[in-house]
Amino acid sequence: MGEPRTPRGAGHRQPAEWEPHDAVWVAWPSHDELWAQLLGDAQAEMIGLCEAIADLDEVGRPRGEQIRMLVPNGVRHLEASEALEHLGVSFSRIPFGDIWMRDIAPIFVRNDDGEVAAACFAFNGWGGKYVLDGDDLVASHVAEAVGAEVFAFGMVLEGGAIEPDGRGTLITTRQCLLNDNRNRGTTVTTLEARLHEAFDARRVLWLDEGLLNDHTDGHVDTIARFVEPGRVVCMKPSGDDDPNREVLETIAADLAKMKDAEGRQLQVERIPSPGLVTDHEGLVMPASYANFYVANTTVVVPTYGSPHDDEAVEAIGALFPTRRVVGSSAKAILTGGGAFHCVTQQQPMGARH
Asked: Which residues in 171-203 are b (16+ Cβ under 10 Å) and which e?
């Protein structure tokens, strides 16, 4: 009989987002055919996000984490470098389909010795809806650029589909992970075993569904986020016309019944939702303040021109008292389907370069 197989990710966990980062990976909005007349607006919002993450001091030196940006070609490299030269951004010439690095980049994991590896999963364009050239190779290219060991997993998984507390608990949704367009026929038991193997997840908490018109089929990073172990934030409806009123109330009620991997009852915090946010055609957009990004010194909260923007930024600020919390416009980026958490992927402290 052969030796027992060691799981590929054994001994590695996905750190919580508030743990220290070496860098954050983003991509420069580049494709005219995808963004059309909103390309310039999406680029401006990316600049705003990068400025917030860099957190320049009074003499213009970045205090935040290193920003590592993908550019597809020389023209876009020049364009991005001119826009971001004051932030110390480093660039990698890597082809990509679009800017959703949370889902197309590797998910970085770390062991107890501080060694960081790249967990790379199959990517099928969010269930075959948006299959773009280059997206399925970004994870391996980024891992190579970092110099990280790669743990390759055959299952389809996007980073926005899971929310870790860094201590063995993951939150996800049935709408996404149990969707036949991802891993057809896979059972809850099998999925939980794979999540344990990849991330040392000892408990998986299952919510039902996400926001209306969410292209990702209910990614959890738009509806529920850990802010510290045992403490999670979700949204409450805003306005009588909030298109997600019932879903948001169900999410909060379900979370309040759950316990984490340490056996603690979750403490549930509520922040406003953006309420009804529509695009230029009047269609409801999956706007979410929960799609914030936690950088080393700053939490960047997406805003949408909603009357609830300021209240949400203030509420999230109370949850992160050791970081500055800033709101930054993300409505143009949202036309592509997501916001700031969707376009970032953190590289935890300790990664090999």
From this structure: bbbebbbbbeebbeeeeeeebbebbbbbbbbbb
Q: What is the pLDDT of residues 32-72, one digit of tens each?
A: 999 999 999 999 999 999 999 999 999 999 999 999 999 99
Catalytic positions, please? 342
Instruction: Give CB contacts under 8 A, 24+ apart, made by 248-257.
Output: 248/223, 248/273, 250/208, 251/207, 251/223, 251/224, 254/207, 254/208, 255/205, 255/207, 255/224
Which element (helix H / strand E) includes 276?
none
**CATH 3.75.10.10 correct for 13-348:** yes
Which of helix, strand or coil describes residue 23? Answer: strand
Residue 212 to residue 193: CA distance in whole angstroms: 29
Long-range contacts of 190-194 (CB under 8 A, 24+ apart): 191/155, 194/153, 194/155
Taking residues 306-335, report their average pLDDT: 98
Give the containing element (helix H, strand E) for 117: strand 116-122
Q: Average the pLDDT over each of 158-167, 277-286, 312-321, 342-351 and give the range with the smallest value.
A: 342-351
Q: Amino acid letter at 109?
A: V
Phi-psi region of 132 (alpha: psi -120 to 50; beta: other; left: phi over 0): beta
203 Cα distance to chain centroid: 20
Q: For the chain, what are the domain ranges?
A: 13-348
Has this prediction a pTM greater than 0.85?
yes
Cα–Cα dist 13/100, whole Å: 22
